[in-house]
Design goal:
With 810 residues, the protein is mostly beta strands. It has 4 helices and 64 strands. The N and C termini lie far apart (108 Å).
């Protein structure tokens, strides 16, 4: 089709219009801006047009201007590429120019494009103008002025076919427009759909982020092999209207196809010409799991992984990531592609574009870690200590891994930020659409306090520069602080006062840019390690990934995780007692039982143990602590759930009463649940609150019964019905002047083939290991290993179990 067939020139209204037609919002034909310029120049040099002013001029082969009042509408501009277009002479001056009128939503008969050429009259102002173009979505009509008078806000307007009222605010505007040209370049993956984000803050819009409807890509309509035209783009985008820059003339262009590395680029295009947008995407070998699945029927040929599949009726498109089931009933796991990310309809035919396979689709369902909603991100300032010796550090978003493997957490973050990720990805109070998310922010602002604290989510304003930005996080250290800003407009300057729309007020000291990670906005994954983007921290990382991540805090300081190592005794059977503890002295066989002194306040019944100094970071996060009553020569064993500062917090305390008869071997509590609810193990101490005797658990019979041995008799030495008891509380008071405590690194009774624990490595620790089991049917000789140490790679001790053939030989 020649351009002459798709362009209509109206000499009366002085309009140039693309009339080549649109299909699904996409021009049926697209032309280089130079083709339009050349066509119009040829047309207007004809003798018959010598009485009309020329409609267009060219500064360069990529920069064109509508002149002499000629007008082209927004939709028509979508049919062109390759060179920017702007207007000169649309601003109303006297009786000439173009005015935009925005009508109220309740107007009785608003303008349509069928009304073009009619004269609109303002009832109060008396202004008149000829309708050039109407946009029903924005409720805006462009009129060419035919009077010196100008239309007014809140004014009733009529024409032959229309009756409407202008808005009370922004009911009219006049000025020039600019459609800038942007084109993408670089290497991007096949089937990638590029999209553009722009804030719709021009007439009739607001400051929310908007994804422009992609008039540059095909829609999905079924053929056996689709003509895939997704890829690089070259488009005109309106960046100025009525003399006001739209979103500060900023565009952000994205290329985010799930399973590929992502890419985005922001640019400011306030002038004409043609702007390059570099993008780069490739296969993401750590993002290969599909997020949708169905079980097909009536299959003919085996589908293959990585092929494109297409729905016969829906036009849905997907890329297969895994194939299961049978040829006749294939189970396809896939992710969606295509302009609209349409999913398959149940029972429609699905065709494989590489294999030629066919099946009828089943009902699609969610699949894979990408849809794990237990993995959530919460935006806003947080302090977190990852126990690497640097204490609390500031972060601006925290991802709760919920103990899922970091490889799965990574896939979840990719899914949240994919094209089509329109949902709010902040589990907190801010609203952040995933497909637009690029980083914690764009700018780090260091400030000195002058007033109250800032409010995250509010808009920050510079008093001198007029610059604005939304506060993502506020790290307030007291006298000074740091703000992370996103959606920054303008340039903040050092020394200026800033405030938010809440109560915050301060003076800027310095500003610095926050660099995004385009390939994966929350961070990249390589070699089994999650390299989190700046300001992103992880919570509830699984033990298996304790060293498989790297953080950079909000201030840009690298934070390596602590070296968490494992201490293991292997080669065990259920019932074996295992023990590893620090040693010193000649031969390295003397246990270090004074790792800690005890504080004065450790009393009978307390739920925790307080030592006399801060606990070193290289103790297990949970395990066993033994308290030594030096004067009595007694050692008590407790299990702790956590520690902080100088306090070991014991497991949740358990209280109850004995409901059985008199016994010296068994505790019965009909209200207890020792097996599934209460955390009890062999070796736990029990304090009889009634008799003050101390017992130890030797076996767990069922939920209501445990076997016990008397450790210390202070009363009648037996259990009587009604005796009350406590577990996981101190069984005595300790003398802070002389009593001590120490923490074995492994201390327990095996239920499987090994006993283990972890600690944060800081220095090599000399230890010994012991394994014993003599009370069962198959006793073993005591095992001990010395001259061993816990190093930077941890420690594994393979126990030698030798049957004790002498025990109870007679």
């Amino acid at each position: 089709m020649a351009i002459a067939d798709d362009i209509t020139v109206n000499y009366t209204r002085q309009t140039v219009e693309y009339t080549g037609g649109f299909t699904d919002g996409i021009p049926d034909s697209r032309y280089h801006s130079n083709e339009l310029y050349s066509y119009l120049q040829d047309l207007f040099d004809e003798p018959a047009q010598m009485d009309d002013p020329v409609p267009i001029s060219a500064a360069t082969p990529t920069d064109y201007t509508w002149i002499n009042g000629w007008f082209m509408d927004d939709e028509s501009h979508k049919a062109f590429y390759g060179g920017a277009m702007s207007s000169v002479g649309w601003t109303k001056s006297g009786a000439a120019g173009v005015t935009q009128l925005r009508w109220t939503s309740g107007s009785s008969d608003p303008p349509t494009n069928a009304d073009r050429g009619e004269t609109v009259t303002g009832e109060h102002s008396g202004a008149t103008g000829v309708i050039l173009y109407a946009d029903a979505t924005r409720r805006v009509v462009w009129v060419r002025s035919t009077s010196v008078a100008q239309f007014e806000d809140a004014e009733s307007c009529t024409s032959t076919s229309t009756a409407f009222t202008t808005e009370t605010t922004d009911g009219w505007a006049t000025g020039e427009s600019l459609w800038s040209c942007g084109y993408t370049l670089g290497t991007i993956e096949d089937l990638s759909e590029i999209y553009i984000m722009q804030e719709a803050d021009f007439m009739g819009g607001d400051s929310s982020k908007t994804k422009l409807t992609s008039w540059w890509n095909r829609s999905s309509t079924f053929t056996k092999v689709l003509d895939v035209s997704a890829g690089h783009i070259d488009v005109l985008v309106k960046v100025k209207e009525v003399d006001s820059l739209i979103d500060g003339a900023r565009l952000t262009v994205f290329c985010r196809q799930y399973s590929k590395t992502y890419s985005h680029f922001s640019l400011t295009v306030s002038a004409g010409g043609r702007s390059a947008v570099p993008l780069s995407s490739g296969d993401d070998l750590n993002n290969t799991t599909g997020n949708r699945t169905f079980t097909g029927s009536n299959g003919t040929v085996t589908f293959t992984a990585e092929e494109r599949i297409v729905g016969e009726h829906s036009g849905a498109e997907g890329v297969v990531t895994a194939v299961g089931g049978t040829v006749g009933s294939p189970v396809l796991t896939y992710y969606l592609i295509g302009k609209d990310l349409t999913d398959f309809d149940a029972a429609e035919g699905v065709v494989g574009q590489t294999s030629g396979s066919y099946c009828d689709a089943g009902a699609p369902a969610n699949a894979g870690p990408a849809l794990d909603t237990s993995i959530v991100a919460t935006f806003g300032h947080v302090l977190q200590d990852i126990n690497n010796g640097n204490g609390n550090r500031p972060y601006s978003v925290q991802i709760d891994c919920n103990t899922q493997d970091l490889s799965e957490v990574y896939e979840r973050t990719k899914h949240l930020t994919r094209r089509g990720g329109t949902a709010d990805i902040d589990d907190g109070g801010q609203t952040i659409a995933g497909e637009f998310y690029t980083a914690i922010g764009e700018l780090l602002v260091r400030y000195i306090h002058q007033g109250a604290a800032f409010t995250e989510g509010e808009t920050l304003v510079g008093h001198v520069s007029g610059a604005t930005g939304i506060i993502t996080s506020d790290y307030d250290t007291g006298e000074e602080g740091y703000l992370v800003l996103r959606d920054v407009k303008g340039t903040f300057v050092a020394g200026e006062e800033i405030d938010d729309t809440g109560t915050g007020n301060a003076e800027i000291q310095t500003t610095s840019a926050v660099v995004a990670v385009p390939a994966a906005p929350f961070g990249t994954f390589a070699g089994g390690v999650f390299f989190c983007a700046r300001g992103v921290s992880l919570l509830n990382v699984p033990a298996g990934d304790a060293k498989n991540y790297q953080l950079t805090d909000t201030l840009g300081v690298l934070q390596q995780p602590p070296n968490v190592v494992s201490i293991v005794i292997s080669g065990l059977v259920a019932g074996d007692r295992g023990f590893i503890a620090e040693v010193t002295g000649a031969g390295l066989t003397s246990l270090v039982k004074d790792q800690h002194g005890l504080a004065a306040a450790n009393n009978l019944g307390d739920p925790d143990i307080v030592v006399d100094a801060a606990i070193d970071s290289d103790y297990p996060a949970a395990g066993v602590i033994r308290c030594v009553d030096v004067s009595a020569g007694i050692e008590d064993r407790y299990r702790y759930a956590s520690w902080t500062g100088s306090t070991f917090t014991l497991l949740t305390e358990i209280h109850g009463s004995h409901t059985g008869g008199t016994s010296t071997t068994q505790l019965t509590d009909s209200a207890a649940e020792f097996v599934h609810v209460d955390d009890v193990e062999i070796g736990d101490l029990i304090y009889n609150d009634t008799s003050t005797d101390i017992w130890v658990i030797t076996g767990i019979i069922d939920g209501e019964n445990v076997t016990v041995d008397l450790v210390e008799q202070n009363g009648d030495g037996q259990w009587e019905s009604g005796d009350t008891y406590s577990i996981h509380t101190l069984v005595r008071a300790y003398n802070g002047a002389e009593d001590t405590a120490y923490v074995p690194y492994v201390d327990g009774v095996a239920t499987a083939t090994e006993l283990s624990n972890t600690l944060t490595y800081s220095t090599t620790i000399q230890v010994l290991a012991r394994v014993r089991y003599s009370s069962g049917a198959s006793p073993i000789e005591p095992y001990q290993s010395t001259n061993i140490s816990i190093g930077s790679n941890g420690l594994t001790v393979a126990a030698s179990r030798i049957d004790d053939t002498i025990k109870d030989a007679f």
